[in-house]
Amino acid sequence: MYQFRILAVAAAVFAVASVSVSARAGELTIATVNNGHMIEMQKLTPEFEAANPGITLNWVTLEEGVLRQRVTTDISTKGGQFDVMTIGMYEAPIWGERGWLEPLTFGAGYDVNDILPAMRNGLSYDGTLYAAPFYGESSMIMYRRDLVEAAGMSIQDNPSWDHIRDVAAAITDKANGVYGVCLRGKPGWGDNAAFITTMANSFGAQLFNQDWTPAFDSPAWREAVEFYVNLVQDYGPPGSEANSFNEILALMNEGKCGMWIDATIAASFVTDPGQSKVADKMAFAQAPYKATRKGANWLWAWALAVPAGTRQADDAKKFIEWATSREYIELIASRNGWGNVPTGTRQSTYDNPQFKAAATFDEDELKAILSANPNDSTLNPSPYVGVQFAAIPEWQAIGLAAGQQFTAALAGDITVEEALAAAQAAADREMRKAGYY
Length: 437
Fold this sequence. Notes:
This protein is 43% helix and 11% strand. It is α+β, with helices and mostly antiparallel strands. Strands 2-1-3-10-6 form a five-stranded mixed β-sheet. The protein starts with 7 loop residues before the first helix and ends with a helix.
């Protein structure tokens, strides 16, 4: 039943483009995402190499959607291009179950029990850890307190989506380049589909019914996607259909977004005066909802894993132990300050008085992470585990297809009804092919 369906042409392109196979003993090729904390990790390459003579690091840094395609292609075809892969909670248990990843065990000083249970459990299969979290996240509201207060409004934890729309209308000032709300529009199961799924959850929708039939044709899905499209078209920036995390982060830091509902990890960036022009104006609140708070905020970790079959598994694990340790967090703090460390992984970070003093978002971030429940994320019972995805192999293809339809609806190329009908058809096709019914 389990297979990732990759177009032959795309696979050929990846094969031609991927020439950085680790050919020398001691050279680790690491596939990672182009997010801020990963970029910072690469800057510390000399630190790791100095402490581990004989090991050199070769980085392949990719945009999020490309990274997912590259590592999926490589591991499913046993391509052997990478010694360390950056993956998440979707891939780790599925690939671990199939023997595609090396189990991770570290020395006692690593203190695996310090890793937040939500992260540890989400990256494990049958009690065995298959990926170690570099940073973890949920989603929450990040907003300009100055704009909201100037409009005579406020944002409390878990406001209604209707209230978010009203605030967006009140603070939008297109003449001055300020937009009330910025939301993901770029297609992808980990991009717009991840955000829209959490929104739909809160409207009472679900990805699959109890008999595993897709549920995109439900009234709740239609209401949620219509709300999303209208909200972004009315109060979001132009070109939103191309925006993902990094694009919106840049807009937020320039002061062009009044609200952003996205990954909690962004809080450290938008409150950093070195990056953000509105760092001192930011405030936070728990995710909005419509009919239920279940599944209104996602749960994710970008984590490091070792593909089974690499000839350098021991060195790869040594790197992962270093990069996801408490000591690494302290190293970043010594260089960049406690407000800029990778978060969402270890309880000790949130217990640290220096972090509490530096990070104005610490309580909001941890509250969001602890409130996300992958085992109970929909109003009505569902057969799958996951908040913003269903933890089944077929979801990658289904989520991508759905995300493409949502982007087309946001761009005005098709109607919401047409988008959901196409998503339903694509999901039905994948589930039938896989033998669910």
